[in-house]
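Supplementary notes for students who missed Thursday's class. We covered one full example, reproduced here. Read the sequence, then the structure, then the short commentary at the end.
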Amino acid sequence: MLRFAAVLLLCGTCQSADADTLKEVFGRGVLGVPWGASLTDVVGTYPQGDHVFAVTPGCRAYWVKDGQTFLAVPRERNGVLFGFDKHNRVAIVTVAFPFERKDELRATLTSVFGLPAVANGNSPAQYYWRSLEGMSASVTEFGEADQRIVWLTITTPGYTSDKQACSE
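Structure (token representation):
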């Protein structure tokens, strides 16, 4: 019954995050990497990471298994993916959380940003917040059995993914 009430509450009147709140929390960057940082800057901050191909406009990303607590939610043994725009500057960051922390993450985000908009009721579960100026934070919960994970993705204002750019 409690889960039903929680789902009903989340699906009820969803609202966008206050623009100032998203900007306050994520406006300077994520996990010590500022928005617009170059790949060299990110590698300097996290030399233990791996360069990976991505379908972001810059066609590259940098994966770091950092495990740092984020927004007061523990993320032991989880990583973060820094994505680059067409100018090879950080424009999107995806932070991984253990699936077991999904309720804790959702509660934290809701307490900071208010009720999320719900992208769909299907699997994977997705919910998000957008500021009036275009910054967004979204969560995707997906996977099966013991291969489940939660992704929190934060994007800068004006960011759009261009999956075609990397295949041309």
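Commentary. The CA atoms of residues 51 and 62 lie 5 Å apart. The chain has a mean pLDDT of 82. If anything here is unclear, bring it to office hours.
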